[in-house]
Amino acid sequence: MYQKITNISDDGEFINEKIREFKLWDEDKGLLWRSKNLNTKMFHDIKLSDFVTNKQEYANIHLLSENIYKQTNAIMVRVSKTKVRFANINDMSKIINLCEDSTKRFINKMIKHEIIAKRIDKIGGRSETKYLLNPIFFFSSKYLSPDLYFSFKHILSKYLTPWQVKLFEEYGNLKGEIIINKE
After folding, report:
1. Which residues form the domain of 59?
2. Which among 58, 68, 62 has a CA at the least distance from the CA of 38?
């Protein structure tokens, strides 16, 4: 894709013209969903409050959203100045100030409502669990990755254009060993 930018002075005179090239689909990153994005909300007509009516749960989701990591939408915690890791139930219970059992119930409810997805990636001989926030409500990247698309495919396919869905389906879930849990 190309973007043509024409600069006109206040007097209406032509100053210059720039042509910028960018790819809508990046093999490593996925679909360019927004050209500039810093943790913004894309769908203003879709409100989290329509899905989460309990004020405490609404607040808890927002507290968790403050911990999404750039480019991934994964809930992460900092363990040192230079290192972060995926948040587990214990970490999230500290973030939202609930006991672990209540946090598990809350997370499972959010998974059921497709606000959070739980993914288990098998890497070598071990598995790694991560919790992702739905990019319809919170988004921390310019690119909608295949990881996020396939985690929230059911809801995202309603808001993407048919050709965008086709791109993801053709690209496929490259991480075929990924388990998507809908507990």
Report:
1. 36-181
2. 68
Question: Is residue 102, in this structure, part of any structural domain at all?
Answer: yes
In a domain, 5, yes or no: no
Q: What percent of the chain has pLDDT over 70?
A: 84
Instruction: Give the CATH number of the domain where residue 159 resides.
Output: 1.10.10.10
Q: Which of 45-59, 86-100, 116-130, 163-177 is predicted with the least confidence, judged by mean pLDDT?
A: 163-177
Residue 31 included in any domain: no
Distance CA 2, CA 23 (A): 8
Please tell me the distance from the alpha carbon of residue 169 to that of residue 183, in angstroms, as a whole number. Answer: 24
Specify the number of domains making up the chain.
Answer: 1
Which tokens in the block code for residue 32? 């360019």
Rounded CA separation 179/183 (Å): 12
Q: Is residue 154 part of a domain?
A: yes
How many CB atoms lie under 10 A from the CB of residue 32? 17
Q: Is the pLDDT of residue 178 over 50?
A: no
Give the strand order in the sheet containing 143-144: 25-26, 30-32, 143-144
Per-residue pLDDT at 34 = 60
pLDDT higher than threshold 70 for residue 176 = no
Residue 17, SS3?
strand
Query: Tokens 């994964």 label which residue?
Result: 74
Residues 51, 152: contact at Cβ < 8 Å?
no
